[in-house]
Amino acid sequence: MLKFLPFLLAIGYGLLMMRFSVWRTKKMLAEQSQPLRDPGLLALAQKMAVALELPQIKVNVYQIEAVNGLAAPDGQIYLTQGFLDRKAKGEVSDAELASVIAHELGHVALGHTRRRMIDFTGQNAVFVMLSALLNRFLPGIGVWIANMISGALMAHMSRRDEFEADAYAAALLVKAGIGVGPQVSLFRKLSALTGAAGAGTPAWLMSHPKTDDRIAAIEVLDARWREA
User: How far apart are CA 99 and CA 102, in angstroms?
Assistant: First the structure.
């Protein structure tokens, strides 16, 4: 039993960190958000709700300047105030922001938010175990190598989730009569909107796939649906 103790402690540490992360995220979002009140965007959200046979889709506005959308651990959907500010300036459209909502709905519907919490636990466990092992043979740099390996594993799983959420969003946008055009056009703008964050980062270490790869995957799906 004792030989499994380090592994069990690593899992316990991961679970503890996961619970703390979920609590902190929910608290932060509750304190810094308010319901979306934009009429044009709410109308498109309602179209998607009808397509999903739901009474409505609730969207919240997270009061930060960054340009982003997110699905919280409890399944709530958020757009940042920064995204809405860009819309007010005419830099993005209602339909493009609707594609962000559709993407985040994909994360919720496909269970990504819950799975990411499990993945987070696993990442912490891998990091703790690898750190202990590698530090025996590579003192000083073992922790750095362990962090790089566990981070790369998490990034790979995150990229998979992004492709799946893109596909879900594309299907929903088509069903709602919005189409994939706004989804593709927003991706083409993302580098400028976000300041090309991560431009020099190797693809295998990025938590999101390359934009061109995401656009290509959506266009393949759209072409397949049109042929069908």
Answer: 5
